[in-house]
Amino acid sequence: MSKVARLVEVFARRFQVQERLTAQICQSLTDTLSTEGVMVVVEARHLCMQMRGVEKQGAVTVTYDSSGKFEQEEWRREFYSLIGKNSIG
Predict the structure, then answer these.
(1) Across residues 48-67, what is the average pLDDT?
(2) Partner of 54 for a Cys bridge, out of 10, 25, 49, 58, CB 3.0 to 4.6 A?
(3) How far is the C-alpha of 36 from the C-alpha of 79, rounded, in Å?
(4) Is Transport set as a keyword in this record (predicted)?
(5) Does 63 fall in a domain?
(6) How far apart are CA 21 and CA 83, in angstroms?
């Protein structure tokens, strides 16, 4: 797991938007691992929203990206149920 954390750090240190960060992590894991699919979920609190006083202080933005089997709805539903999230698009 520490290698996954380091991978996330590599991409997160760059000037970044959350959607691209999620996609880069997914692509890197897909390219590196011999697996049938990868699903990445990134949950973040954005300080820019909090500092500007946006209505929902502490609001979390969630982005998803997937490859392989997780492109199929049935695999996504299973994944979401395992992590306790509602199905997203």
Answers:
(1) 76
(2) 49
(3) 14
(4) no
(5) yes
(6) 20
